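Renewal narrative, Specific Aim 1. Our central claim is that a sequence can be written position by position from structural information alone. The example that follows is taken directly from our test logs and has not been curated for this report. It begins with the structure tokens describing the chain, in the order in which they were read.
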């Protein structure tokens, strides 16, 4: 079993907000209380995929803006 540890504990709230935003964008309703064990693998994967997509877009934009 894998455990997700946040490297910077101060970022926890921002990561939760980011996750909720990504879930909303792909049409998945997450519980605010933190338990989302009833999600299907497809739903969880779509949230993670959306988060990665947004992170890549952000990085690409930062590269564009630094030139």
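The sequence written for that structure reads:
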């Amino acid at each position: 079993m894998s455990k997700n540890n946040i490297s910077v504990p101060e970022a926890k709230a921002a990561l939760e907000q980011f996750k909720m935003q990504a879930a909303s964008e792909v049409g998945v309703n997450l519980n605010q209380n933190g338990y989302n064990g009833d999600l299907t693998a497809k739903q969880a994967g779509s949230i993670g995929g959306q988060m990665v997509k947004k992170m890549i877009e952000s990085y690409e934009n930062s590269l564009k803006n630094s030139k």
